[in-house]
From TrEMBL:
Family listed: Belongs to the enoyl-CoA hydratase/isomerase family.
Record-linked PANTHER family: EG:BACN32G11.4 PROTEIN, ENOYL-COA HYDRATASE
Keywords, alphabetical: Isomerase
InterPro entries: ClpP/crotonase-like_dom_sf, Enoyl-CoA_hyd/isom_CS, Enoyl-CoA_hydra/iso, Enoyl-CoA_hydra_C
Pfam families membership: ECH_1
Keyword Metal-binding: no
Stated name of the protein: 2-(1,2-epoxy-1,2-dihydrophenyl)acetyl-CoA isomerase
One MF annotation (Gene Ontology) recorded for this entry: isomerase activity
Amino acid sequence: MTDPVLMSLSDGIATITLNRPERLNAITRDLILMLRDKIDTAAADDSVRVVCLTGAGRGFCAGQDLSERDPRGRSEPFDLEAIQAELYHPIVRAIANMPKPVVASVNGVAAGAGSGLALACDIVIAGQSAKFIQSFSKVGLSVDAGGGLALLRSLGMPRAKAALMLAEAIPADDAADLGMIWKSVPDEALQAETEVVVRKLASTPRTALACIKQAMAAAATAPGLGDYLKQEAALQGIAGSHPDYGEGVLSFLEKRKPNFE
């Protein structure tokens, strides 16, 4: 059997591919457990500088495979609260806590938890035919995989609630215009554009990227300006004490390309 998640490593770029193209990469227990393992592996590997998450075939991820939620023959409902805590939340936290940037390259539909996985990433780039669908209400559910917080932060309360309640598809171009994702590009250009982004990140000082990621997390959670400024200054101090900062300044003054560690 083919693994439901694949990972390759080249030039400091770990590419993780959801690999159930015949089901639009819908999530099964095996897939989510293997995805968690691949993300943890990439996070722990010092040779990895950036992670790219994408889907095989014509879709990114259609969300939960509902064949695993068939209620027929069951006397009790599924404990979705426990399933979230066991399977989905560790992945969302791993992406958020990883000091390395994670790029989502969305090559088709991203629905339900599939949309949540994409929006959990640091940078989301999508092909123009991609659609983001908060499909939960269609099957009588709320929202999961961290999607509610991601939508609130990117769309604001009115649009986030409408997206969840109406479950209407948001095309990639609209998602980019609304600030839900970073960029929408022609489908045929998605792979090349993604390559440019991940290679640029792979050549950027890793301490700077890690501190930027932490600073933005602090900006989203700090209770007030003073708390944020304290964390921002501490992170700038960490970045400024790294040799890459000195090399960056020197290369600018000497008008040459920097040679970062």
